[in-house]
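Lab notebook, bench 4. Still working through the backlog of constructs that have no structural model yet. Next entry is a single chain of 330 residues. Request: give me the structure tokens for it.
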Amino acid sequence: MPASHHDVVGIGNAIVDVIAHADDAEIERLGLSRGTMTLIDAETAALLYDRMGPAVEVSGGSAANTIAALASLGGDGAFIGKVSSDQLGAIFRHDITALGIRFLAEPGHGGTPTGRCLIFVTPDAQRTMQTFLGASAELTPADIDEAAVAGARITYLEGYLWDRPAAKEAFRKAAKTAHDAGRLVALSLSDPFCVDRHRADFRALVEHHVDVLFANEDEIVSLYQEHSFDAALQQVRHHCWIAALTRSEKGSVIVSNDAVHVVDAEPVAAVVDTTGAGDAYAAGFLFALTRERDLATCARAGGICAAEAIGHMGARPEASLARLVTERLG
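Model written out:
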């Protein structure tokens, strides 16, 4: 395999997260589907923003959060995502480049504003997300930096971006470029509703283009329309090299050919906000994989990063993930 320029190149939505506390009554009053991600238009985004309580605003997006956590681990990352040439776009670009991450897509000038995700966090730390994709959904094959993808050990694709035809073609182009260069392709299924919308496409993608799959319990069961997690696990083991399946407080299960690794969740003092837990898990897993650690250790690294993420508001790490992983894994 040729020398790599990056550990991971992430491709996904470039979004600014707006995070606020809310109780169950407010979730019901606003007519939101609790604990899920729903795509909304610009008008709905403006209405919900006006009705939110005090909020924290921070650059986000699932794959971008993973690359940010990778940087905290000491990994070398790059990110491809679309923003507009507006204030939120400038904030996103500043935040991600300040972490030492290469931001590879040029800003759009078509008038579509930068995307934002309104996140309502209930007292049980569950998050309900209302996402206006904005410019991030306008990613096209022309935005894929082929040299960066060919030079990365792993290209990481965000399932949330799969809604538009041009983005699908961008994913396929990136996967082909990576495989032609002898690199790995990873995919996060992102959300059960996302799987419901694109089940057939995702199955084909996993079977023919993906080496490493990340999914939680609901997502993998939905993907294969099975009645149980164990039944879905038996299906996915035939379709990709590695499936890293997360189960919240039950930890994770890693499947690779005939091997199955069951790894406990890492301890956490208090669960404050589950936003970004899966993103952080993917970062820890991929970082360890690029260091050629065994799969059980990759899962532990992912669990350590996820535990840090759920201990505070927001998806980006507040502590050094490199220090935490070194202390616990060596």
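Notes after review: The two ends are 27 Å apart (CA to CA). The chain has one domain: 6-12+62-105+134-329. Flag for follow-up if needed.
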